[in-house]
Request: fold
Amino acid sequence: MGQANKDTDDWFSGKAAIVTGGSRGIGRAVAGELAVRGASVVLNGRDQAVLDLAVQELRDAGGSAIGVQGDFLDPEFPDRVVGACQEEFGRIDFLVNNAAASSHSGRVLDCGPDAFRDTILANSWPAVAITQAAAAAGLAEGSAIVNISSAGARRVHELAGVYTAGKLALESLTFTLSRELGPRGVTVNAIEPGIIRTDMAGTIWNGERGAAETRLVPMQRLGLPADIASAVLYLLGPHARWVNGTMLRVDGGRFHVGGESAHMIGVFE
Ligand SMILES: NC(=O)c1ccc[n+]([C@@H]2O[C@H](COP(=O)([O-])OP(=O)(O)OC[C@H]3O[C@@H](n4cnc5c(N)ncnc54)[C@H](OP(=O)(O)O)[C@@H]3O)[C@@H](O)[C@H]2O)c1
Reply:
């Protein structure tokens, strides 16, 4: 094992992490990487059976994990998740604000007020609410927060313009929270994933559409949850302690600034 890997493993061992939406997809991969390095993990999701399975898999692999079933749009949810982490593990070191959703698919011109509000809120408020609750409960010195944005956040998106606006709000909040929490030794960063093979993005990576998207990625493949989990671990880990208020794009080079493919094909059609 190299020194950098050993430092990383030592860093996570004995600490506690909350991964929202950790029951599936990117969040599940992040939870797995944390648990295997000795961090205790609190996962959440709405589907109890899927959540139970994820927790059991982590425990079967020797990890320490609990699940807190619930919907992040429930105003009591952040306190419940943070309280469970404190109660079970006695500390909170890492937050990965990953769960998100979109209630609108289509043009911004056609989005009604309810879908607009729900989508912007779902992509920004849960991260803020969990961060507030964790900060009040006492984030340990050296804690780190990673918000999962999207590579689409700063791009024109034909069919998910409201979702990407919610992600851009999340990025703005990431900047401000990095300023507010920095003096406490807590970093706050965001990751902008490209297209990742999860349930959420199934319509993009399947079939002809997936083949077309793959050709636009310089690395000639779409992303896997593990690609994002590696980047999350870096931002939470010992080698990123002076990385703060940063957006890290992880997309195989697909959306490089000024690149020919800076305009996304629709996601939620
Ligand atoms: N996949 C991509 O291509 C891609 C690209 C850019 C950004 N992202 C971002 O990456 C993050 C994870 O996406 P993913 O692709 O891993 O999604 P996913 O596979 O659909 O998983 C979403 C996770 O969030 C949970 N969740 C969803 N809505 C919830 C709610 N209202 N309350 C509580 N938990 C909820 C889900 O569990 P339940 O359904 O059981 O609640 C699940 O654990 C999101 O922020 C997404 O915007 C994804």
Residues 21, 23-27, 44-47, 50, 71-73, 98-101, 148, 150, 193, 195-196, 198-201 surround NAP (CB under 6 Å). The chain has a mean pLDDT of 92.
